[in-house]
Structures are given as structure tokens and as C-alpha cells.
Amino acid sequence: MKHCKRILAGLLAAALLMSLLLLPATAAQGGSFTDIQDPDVAEAAELLRLLEVVDGTGGTYFRPSGTLSRAEFCKMAVCILGKRDMEPAQRGRTIFTDVGPSHWGRGYINLAASLTTAGDLAGTGEGSGAGDRLILGVGDGSFAPDRAITFGEAVAILIRILGYSAADIAPGASWYDGYLSLAAESGLSDGLTGLSGGATITRGQTARLFRNLLFTNGKGSDSCYLVSKLGGSITEDVTLLSLDESGSQAVITLSAAGGELLTPKTERTGLSTQLLGVRGEMVQDKDGKFLTLLPNEDDDIRRVSVSGTVDANYITAGGEKITVLPETLVWKNGAATTFEKVWSYLYTGTPMLLCYGPAGKLDYIYLSSAARVEGDVMVAYADPEGSNPFASLTGGDPEAKIYKNGVPASVSDLRRYDVAYYDSAAKILYVSDQRLTGRYENAYPNPTAPSRVTMLGQEFTVLPGASADLSAFRPGDTVTLLFTSGGQVAGAVGTDMAESTTVGVVQKCEGGAAEVAPLVDLVNADGEKVVFRGAVSLSEKAAAEMVGQLVTVSSTSAGKLNLSKLAGGTSVTGSLDVDGRTLDGVPLSPNVRLFERVGRGPTAEIQYDQLTRHTVEASKILYAAKDYSGRYSVLVFDDVTGDQYEYGFAVYTPAADSYGAIQTNNPHVSVRYGNGTESQSQQLVCGTQFRKDELIGIAASLETIKEEQKLGRYVRLTEAEGVTRADYDPDNHTLRVGSEIFPISREVWCYNETTGHWFEGEDGYARFELARAYAEELTVYYDNSPQNGGKVRFVIVQ
User: Fold this and answer.
1) Are 728 and 625 in a shared domain?
2) What is the tens place of the pLDDT at every residue in 465-485?
3) Are residues 723 and 711 part of one domain?
4) pTM score > 0.85 for this model?
């Protein structure tokens, strides 16, 4: 006998393995029972209520820890058989001496004692012998209706409901041993370990037992009891997209295989929002009404919050770089799309669910509705002093987690002017301390109740709760805006109360105008990542020196930017211990953001695993900022990984005299490289000569000459011949070159000098494996020593 849906330790055990949790039912959730704390029991009781098997003990109480009498169990058995309408006809009979006319359960007991394992009244169908009856007396003509039922008795009755007779039960030391053995084998007793056959069973345990019955196959049946006997249905491969219990009736939307949207009717209440975005089996009753969702046991569900760079092929969450294919399915606002269409709209703090299938492949992403907050948002206007100022958002839920600026936090990490909203689906309180100070330029539709405000040339969405704050200011004032992690304005205070936490890098600064990109994402009212643009009052020389600098940005008049260089967020005197993740003895935040630039080139975000050196000296750290807990949360390096260069064969174009004028065109340099086919980098104006096809690395500067970008820095690669296949460590992607161990660059280029072809692969590791397989010996080129971040950048085979 096989279990229709193997419920590991109950329906939600699989969900718990996937970090899901059903909420206990509450009075606010309609007809659910309010006194059940165990989520698995709450789920079981709710299913039985919907199937009219139980109705509690009055009001919204279930008394899960109370015992259940034999008479009460008879009633449940009759109801689960769908024979309730036959009960009145059995009230006039006397079968057991202690179940007289005045006993409330007489009809149910008589009916249960008259039904056979085939579900028929004795004498009206096959198998009408006494051994085939569902319920028996206690042996002396009595039934003991008010005695608490034992686990062995309860299991025996349900095994008979599944169609098994006495002939199917193996003998044992006690009469119930064979029944318990069959229950364990079938899955009927899943989640009820440790109960002996003679022990009394609680109402909560009974609910679990009956719930298990629904999803257990009957004797000789290929489908579970719910389907084969109750006319219900189970639909595989559906995903719960939305759940709305705000009205008089819950509205549920699911996606079936092939993308069809389903909106079944339901009387279900108390369904956990933790199931939003989860894939599994939809359970419906005989009328097609939704009962529950059984999560796929083989799926691995991860709930993450974006905490760094998002690109067309990956997201960063919790300091981890998570690869996402462009064609990956994304559920957003109940509609199917792909990652390549939405990645540019994902920002720091965006919550999402990642579903990995049995093979470990990312099957889809579900974007929580809280990705753009429109609901309740709170600002901590007073010093929390160690308490949680946002407790009303979570309802005091002890399971609620706190994430501040994308990293797990605690109540002690909360500060004055923090902004929070609660994602009930993920059970996470998202907290942000993102602030921006500047001139209040405009309000729409008016300053009294603005829905949008403009600052530093950018228009931001104002949440309803922030209108009161902003009504105290007028356009022209200097204000500090308080943002949610989704980029919406949740409050506003004077600059004497709070200052900006926004730091950016100057991308352009010429012609009296500047362009500044914040290091941490800000999002405007159109859902676009903010880049501040405006006029600056700087000399030509000062403007040129500002390019590539880290600055705080503010404004005192419309259309203008004030830029202040940062010498460093805090004083850094010691080195970064890469392995220990400490800077000058101070820990790094778990989601520390790392940035790197080469000279006056653009600032790019990097991942921690790109730091292959063991230490980074203070002189190579351009900026270091601490978070609310005193840990370093932002570091900006000056050329420590070598990964900001483009490597390849030098293509040098010398200056040439122009016709008819005494001027010389600028010399240029680029590099050629390839992944199957050859490509060439951007040409940069340079002042250094390069030999044709020498192997170099070049990094661009943000400075320009006649609108052409200049070469910032370059490096000539060092050659090492005679490196063998055996020198490679595939587990760590390192290569022994002489007495040194070099990391292989993830972007290493590999060239076959004999055939003139480039090795092709999804990344440098794959290309290197192909080159290594082609030739026993390799000629490799590296940029620096391993101690200074050097890596193998280029490989040639013959």
C-alpha cells in the first residue's frame, strides 16, 4: 500500500524543511479555531472543518489538548465516510446496552457499528461478517461511549475505513499491533510517533490522524481516500500566486502547469501567507472548492532579500552571488515574465522567493508584493532604547525576523529615524536607514498632501503616512527624506534631526555639470535607479579632478548639486584581514558592499570572493563606512583585484599627422580577446606605446580628451611557460606556476596559437578546462604576484 502524498511528520513537515510555517488560526481569520498553537494541528483541523467532519467544541474553540470520547470518534468516522445523512434512521435502534435513547451519539454509534469495511450497511453489500464491521463494542454487549478513545482503537477504525478487514491484519502481542504496523507502513500515522496502542489520543492528534487518512491510499486503490471516496481532486504542479482574505470570502489565485491561472472558490481561512510563491499540489473537495496546497517535498525554497548588485545574470543577497539565467521564469504581480525583463527593476531590499527543483536548478522566482511597499510603513521617531518600535507591524509574532539594510538584525540594532515595513509572506520586518538631504524642489499635487516630491532633480513617491511630515515643510526648504528599502519616502525631518546617508561616485563632471551615481540603490517614482545630475560651481581643473571621486551629494537650489569629497567614512589605520573578515580589528557586516576602481576610473561593485589576497593595506582602501552596529558596511578599494582591467593582445594605433593642419591625432590602445570568436575592447586615448600583440591589461579612466575616454592604467602580463595539466587544482581553481599558487581568473581568455581559435565556454573556468584538455603544457600569463591579488589572466596552447 502506498501513501498518496507522503506527509513527513504531517502536512507541513515538508514545508518546514523549506523554511515555511503555517500561522495558527485566529479569530480574525473567519471560521478557524482560535485555540490551536501547533501549525500542523491547525491545518488538519481546518481541513476537517471544511469537510464538515469537525465543528469544534463551541464558538471558535477546538480544545486540541483535550481527549476524544469513543462516541465523538464515531461521529467523525461517520462524517469522513460521507454517511452523515444516514444517522437519523439509526437513532431508534438499541445495539449496545450502554447507549440508550438519551445518549446524544446513539445514531452515530449505531450507524458506525452497522457499516462494513466496504462502506455499506451490514447485509446490503459484500463482506457483511462481524469481522468486517468498522466499529465493535468492548466485548460484553456494551460500547463505553464516553470513555476516551485510545490510539490503537482510533487507528483500527481508520484502517477499516481504508477497506482492510481482520484478515489483512498481522497478529501481534496485542490486538492492535497489526493495525499500528499497517498504519506506519501506509503513512496513516505519520507525525504521531511515540504513541502506544493503549494510550489515549488527544483531539489534536486525532485531527492529524484524520488528515493523514485523506491522503492515504485505500486497499487496492491507486488514489488517496480524498479522491477515491470523497470525490475530491489533487492537481499537481501548481503555484500559489496570491491570497486575499480581506473580504467576506477568501480569493486565491494559482498557476497551473502551462501557465493557466486558476481562481477556485474556497471557504478556506487561515491559509498561511508563507505558502505564497510555493509550488505543490492543489487539494479540492468534491465541489471543486480549494482546501489547501501541499508543498512539493523535493523543492528547495529560499527567501532572500537583494543586498547588492543585480545584473542580467545574477543577484546578490546576503553577500552571496546567485546566478540566474535570463530565461528564468519570474512571477510578478500574478503574471509570468522572465528575469531578463525584470532584473533592472530589482533593488536593494527587494524580497523574493527562489524555488530550486529536485535537480538543484533554479526553476522560478516569485516576487513578493512587498517588493514595492504600499501598505503599512512606520518610522521610529523616538529612540527605541532597546525595544522594538515596529512591534505593531508584526502583531507581536515571535517568528518574525528583522532585516536591516538587507542583513539579519535584532531589536538592539534599531535606531531613531529607521523606516520599516512588514512582509507577512516572508515574515520579515524590513528596516532601512537610507536618507537623503537636499533642497525640497517641488511637490505634487500640493505641499499639504504630496504624493510625490522632487529633490536633487529626482521625483520620489511619497507614502501616505509621510504626508503629515512633509506638510511641515515647503518647497525651498532643506529637508532630510527618510526612505523605505524600496525607495519610497516614508517620512521627512529637518537637517538638524537627521543627515543624509547617501554616498555616490562622480561619473562625469565637465561643462559646469556633474553626474553622480549612488553606491547604494535609490529608486525614483518611475521605478528607475537614481543617477543625480545637475549644475556644479567648479573650475575646469577642479571638475576634472572630481571625476571618479566618492562624494556626499546635496543641493541648496533647484538644478544644482553640491559635491563634497570623502577622504574616508572612518579613519582606517589597519589592514583588511580578508580571511578573518575584519578591518583594523573591526568586523565586516555580513552583507558588506565592496567597490573597486582603478585610479580615476569608474567604480564597480565586486564580490568578496574576488579578493584573493590575504590582506589589503589601508593605503588601498579609498573609503570605509560603518553601519548602525559599528560594523563596516561599505568598502571602496583602489585596484586590489585586477578584475577591472580588460586583458588581451595589444592593438596599438599610433598618432598620425592630420592633413592641412599642425595637429596630431591621439594614439589609441585596445585589446583583442575572444570566447569562440574574437572581440576587441573600446579604444582608449593613451600616452604609452605598446608592441603589437603583447599581452596587456587596460583600464579606462572617466577622464576624456575630445570626448574620447582616456587610458587610466595598464599592466603588462608576465609569461610563464611549461605549466602542465597536473599543476591545476580544479576544486579551488588555482594553478601552480613555479613555486607560486595563482588563482585562475573567472574571466581568463584561452587561445590556440596553432589553429588561431579561441576556446569557448560559459566562463573562464570552462574555457581553461578546454585548453587544459587540448594540450599537456600551457603558457600562462599573470598580472601580479598572488600576494598582491595577481591571477592567471591569459592562456596560450599550441
Assistant:
1) no
2) 898 899 999 999 999 999 987
3) no
4) no
